[in-house]
């Protein structure tokens, strides 16, 4: 007997099947192969948005009065809540050992670096990490932030401004093998906070591209691996990583980092693109500390939104 799509939709079997498939993708996204075209990573970039699939399915189930479809919709709803529901909860109250940090890719085409710097400082963070610092704009950021952030370190196109003293700043070599031109996007320094020393890493991983062949992320993944090895060798107990990592924390391409560091427990903070944020690729992670809450700040002259996070030191 031929399969009748209209009849099956009327019975609610198609919505039920789609609901079960959505739940399977949410729960088993790590089983989706990454070849060809790094489909697994592509799915993981937009994984939170799979929850929206349940909205039209719910309407269709109500329209068809299908108890089967409504019951099946509990599966993706439960899976999404398990994975992302905690991010919607309010963060814990501020404690005495909290640090506030801001992470921002300021864009090498930013028309107002002074205004951007003032906006970031206005959030009152202890640390400000910046990427895409170009020679023409660097002095502007330095002058604008100097009064409130007297300590800073810059290596290549990444930098860190701090209210607390810094020491031992050095370049991190996270350049992929294919890149032969001058390329410096990693920085490591020690922040001397009132609660002890923290190794602070600032990084800007290579961009990924979405095309007909899928997601081109091999350079990003290689750079993440190099950064992960540096973190594994870090002797300081407490570590904070701030950066434009060009990937979400669900993306398996960032496993060398997310397997070693704690990620934000509260807040979505979708940061890119600034005009219509679809994903958070600007990250704050930590070791021997907890990233309690992350949020976006108002738009600047960049194509990224700044993110601010509160870190509780142990």
Structure description:
This protein has a six-stranded mixed beta sheet with strand order 3-4-2-1-13-12, with no helix packed on it. Strands 5-6-7-10-11 form a five-stranded mixed beta sheet, with no helix packed on it. Strands 8-9 form a two-stranded antiparallel ribbon. The chain is of the alpha+beta class and 314 residues long. Helices cover 30% and strands 25% of the residues. The N and C termini lie far apart (65 Å). The longest helix has 16 residues, at 218-233.
Sum this structure up briefly:
This protein is of the alpha+beta class. It has helices at residues 5-11, 13-27, 39-45, 54-64, 67-72, 74-84, 113-121, 138-145, 218-233, 255-258; strands at residues 98-105, 127-131, 151-155, 158-162, 166-171, 186-193, 196-204, 209-211, 214-216, 239-244, 282-287, 289-296, 307-313. The strands form 3 sheets. The chain has a 6-stranded mixed beta sheet with strand order 3-4-2-1-13-12, with no helix packed on it. A 5-stranded mixed beta sheet has the order 5-6-7-10-11, with no helix packed on it. It has a two-stranded antiparallel sheet with strand order 8-9.
